[in-house]
Amino acid sequence: MSDEAVTIRIGLVSAQPRFTTWLMAAVEDSPRLRLMRVVMTIDRIDPKDIDILVLAGEGMPLQELILYLERNSLRGAILFSVEGAIDPKILMSSSRPLGWLSPEMTRAQFSAAIEAVYAGFNVISAGEESTGGDVEIESLSDRETQVLRFIVEGFSNQMIAEALQISENTVKFHLTNIYSKLGVSRRSAAIRKAIGNGLIAL
């Protein structure tokens, strides 16, 4: 069975009724997402029943969450409305993907973030503060950012060239610069770094 046909099972830990209602509507909007359990404390979640854990509001410290995910073999977790800045080094230290999301995101963006975490990517949404990251969006030109967004969306070099009305050689030139600035050598690594460092907002 392909990943596209798989239902993503979600467990929600939230003491905020408004957020719970919002998330239930977001899940209804997506045929792949299924809300398995809504609880107020994490100890009431059975990890065997879910793929992605969603924590809303104040939750456990990030390092404790990473240990929880690894102990319970969950696919990943999403954190909403957590106070404080993000240290990408801690985020990247997890063997399981994590999402750190802004409560201002749309339901479609939330669904895309769940899909990205399920697929193995770390996600930091636009508007969330990051500390200690080794890449900043300012280091990429506007055109490089456009090209990066297209590769995150799965465009081939030819498709990018057609969309931007430039030659494929120019696309390759931009990709070389992007890889150099991100410190990677492959397209897949650039995508992971772009999403993980919040360079491309979902």
From TrEMBL:
Q: Which PROSITE patterns match?
A: HTH_LUXR_1 (PS00622), HTH_LUXR_2 (PS50043)
**Signal peptide boundaries:** none
A biological process from GO: regulation of DNA-templated transcription
**From the UniProt record, which GO molecular function terms apply?**
DNA binding
What domain of life?
Bacteria
Which Pfam family would be a valid example here?
GerE
User: Could you tell me which residue ranges the HTH luxR-type domain spans?
Assistant: 133-198
Classification via SUPFAM superfamilies: C-terminal effector domain of the bipartite response regulators (SSF46894)
Q: Which UniProt keywords apply?
A: DNA-binding, Transcription, Transcription regulation
Tell me what this protein is called: Response regulator containing a CheY-like receiver domain and an HTH DNA-binding domain
Write down the species. Answer: Longilinea arvoryzae
